[in-house]
Write a structure and sequence with these properties.
By secondary structure, the protein is mainly β. The protein has two domains: 172 residues, no CATH class; 137 residues, no CATH class. It is built from three helices and 44 strands. The strands form five sheets. Strands 25-22-19-16-13-10-7-4-1-41-38-35-32-29-27 form a 15-stranded parallel β-sheet, with helices on one face. Strands 23-20-17-14-11-8-5-2-42-39-36-33-30 form a 13-stranded parallel β-sheet, with no helix packed on it. Strands 24-21-18-15-12-9-6-3-43-40-37 form an eleven-stranded parallel β-sheet, with no helix packed on it. Helix 1 packs antiparallel against helix 2 and helix 2 runs antiparallel to helix 3. The N terminus and C terminus are likely disordered.
């Protein structure tokens, strides 16, 4: 995954160098490494996949068989259905709850409780500030640490130490390669916190708007038929909609370019609508700036069933996508969406980041800041 930092630096600064100062706060923030960010919750339907990291100020919920190619950072709860998973770590400000056969490629850190269903596999540490409750047949490759009780179901395997702040309850046939310790003196790390990025996204949206109106796209007529646009700055006085089963072709002419869409109201890709790239280089950028600053507007983004968008979406309001939708980047970039004030929802069988998009990280297996008291 090319970080958002690289995405913005490559083209916008070359077109409008004055944008650098306004965008610098974004470039210095952890949003540079996200595929999805929401100031409210994120929900992903069954079998939906995201190629990069996802972050929410509140809850993140993955339905069965949904997968994340990077990290999950939830300000409150992280809930994964059966056979869901993440290639990176999972942090939850309160509870982490995993259904059967969930796979986590890094560590798991919960601000309160961690509850694991049967046959869960965690390739790093498992840490919770209160209780850890583990069903049968679970495997944890790192250490386990709970601020209070640890309860382990039958036949589970632990490659490291298991520490409980109070008591341990161990089922039949459990294997612990390290040391089992009750009343442990190990200190549990603080609950993870997700920083609210509403003001940051708003400032970035303002900077993109100040690039200018460029070519106006008339809301009532644009997108009713198939459309083609070359690189440039585009704006609307109201909404921008691509009608059902229509295409918007972005023609890059084989040279690096930037498409910036400053949208005064809302952005809609109706069912089956698609963005198509023609001769667009990998160093190009596509930015959808859904401002919602027209009188009475909400600044939301909507993708109907089967719709496909390319690039990064900065949305003042919610991002709502139906089943079988796609948000992808250019080349091996994962693309993504950011909601400044609201939630992000994807229906079943959707994709954020084309298959094979690169996240460029090694999942950490150890939870930071675990210390011993001597």
């Amino acid at each position: 995954m090319k970080p958002t930092k690289q995405l913005l630096l490559i083209s916008i600064f070359s077109v409008v160098p004055s944008a650098q100062a306004g965008l610098q706060p974004l470039l210095d923030s952890d949003l540079t490494n996200q595929s999805l960010y929401a100031s409210s919750y994120i929900t992903m339907g069954a079998r939906t996949t995201a190629g990069g990291n996802i972050q929410s100020v509140t809850a993140i919920t993955l339905a069965a068989n949904a997968t994340i190619g990077g990290n999950i950072e939830a300000g409150t709860t992280a809930t994964l259905g059966a056979d869901a998973g993440a290639d990176g770590y999972i942090e939850a400000g309160t509870t982490a709850t995993f259904g059967a056969a969930v796979i986590v490629g890094g560590y798991t850190l919960a601000g309160t409780t961690a509850t694991l269903g049967a046959a869960v596999n965690i390739e790093g540490d498992l840490v919770a500030r209160t209780t850890v409750t583990i069903d049968a047949g679970v495997e944890v490759w790192g250490d386990v640490l709970a601020g209070s009780t640890v309860t382990i179901g039958a036949g589970s395997i632990f490659r490291g130490d298991v520490d409980a702040g109070t008591t341990t309850t161990i089922g039949a046939g459990v294997r612990i390669d390290g040391t089992l310790t009750a009343n442990s003196s190990k200190v549990v790390p603080a609950s993870p916190i997700v920083q609210n990025q509403e003001d940051l996204i708003a400032s970035v949206q303002k900077t993109l708007k100040e690039l200018g109106t460029g070519t106006e796209l008339v809301s009532l007529t644009f997108g009713i038929n198939h459309e083609t646009l070359e690189a440039g700055i585009y704006s609307t006085r109201d909404y921008l909609t691509i009608a059902a089963d229509k295409t918007l072709t972005l023609d890059g002419k084989g040279v690096d370019g930037t498409w910036v869409f400053n949208i005064a109201n809302y952005l809609t890709f109706a069912a089956g609508a698609k963005v198509i790239l023609k001769d667009v280089t990998e160093n190009s950028s596509i930015l959808w700036n859904v401002l919602g600053d027209a009188t009475g507007s909400a600044g939301y983004t909507s993708l109907g069933a089967g719709a496909e968008a390319i690039g990064y979406i900065f949305s003042r309001g919610y991002v709502l996508a139906g089943a079988n939708t796609l948000i992808a980047g250019i080349g091996n970039d994962c693309g993504g969406a950011f909601s400044a004030t609201n939630y992000i929802e994807f229906g079943a069988d959707s994709v954020i980041g084309m298959e094979g998009c690169v996240s460029n990280f090694i999942p950490p297996n150890k939870v930071p800041s675990i210390i011993w008291l001597f």
